Amino acid sequence: MADVRKKDTVFTLTRCGILAAMAVVLYYIEIPVVAFYKLDLSTLPAILAGFAMGPVQGVAVVVIKNLVHMLGTSTACVGEVADIIMSSCFVIPASLIYRSHKNRKSAVQAMAAGTILMTISGILVNYFVLIPAYQVLMNLPLDVIVGMGTKVWSYIDSTVKLVIFVTGPFNLLKGFTLSVVTYLLYKRVSPLLHQKGGR
To answer: d(Cα 125, Cα 51) in Å, to the nearest integer?
Structure first.
């Protein structure tokens, strides 16, 4: 029995390690979208880990990815902390919902919930934590940060408008993109993420 548990633990750690390594690589592939926001798919391996093993393993992949990137951060770790918060807000609810009913309908509901929570948390965290942190840690004046949004849409002239009309839609787009890619890939890679006889 002890040997079986040991093998299960090693297998879980191996899967988390491989998925975290994939996430680290994907983190470097960014597509500029709007203002200072860039789209990447580095949360995808964490979602796969969450679906296959559970929310703890999914968040572990997120944390490992960001710890690695903190070694060469260009945002005083603010960007990495933001990614941990936002990605976890997607991975945790999505993993828990999918875990209860492992079918396509549940997967869609799980990712929709993850997208909504990530979008809401993105707005709140950017407003109350991240933008103030950029001001202090990176010495970025508030008018410069808001100005990035103003260049996108002249109506954006405050932090509130920035997070509602730029941060919110960006996270919706990111959540939708991650959901579509996960939906297309998960069943294909699922056999590789489970032990023989697993689901």
So the answer is: 25
Query: In whole numbers, what is the pLDDT of the chain averaged over residues?
Result: 91
Return d(Cα 11, Cα 121) in angstroms, integer.
Answer: 33
Q: Of 89, 101, 102, whose CA–CA distance to 194 is shortest? A: 102
CA distance 165 to 147: 13
CA distances from 45 to 67, 76, 117, 193 (A): 15, 24, 19, 11
Prediction pTM value: 0.91
3-state helix, strand, coil in the chain (%, to 5): 80, 5, 20
- pLDDT value, residue 123: 96
Question: What pLDDT score does 2 carry?
Answer: 56
Taking phi first (over 0 means left), then psi (-120 to 50 degrees means alpha), and beta for anything else, what does residue 94 get? alpha
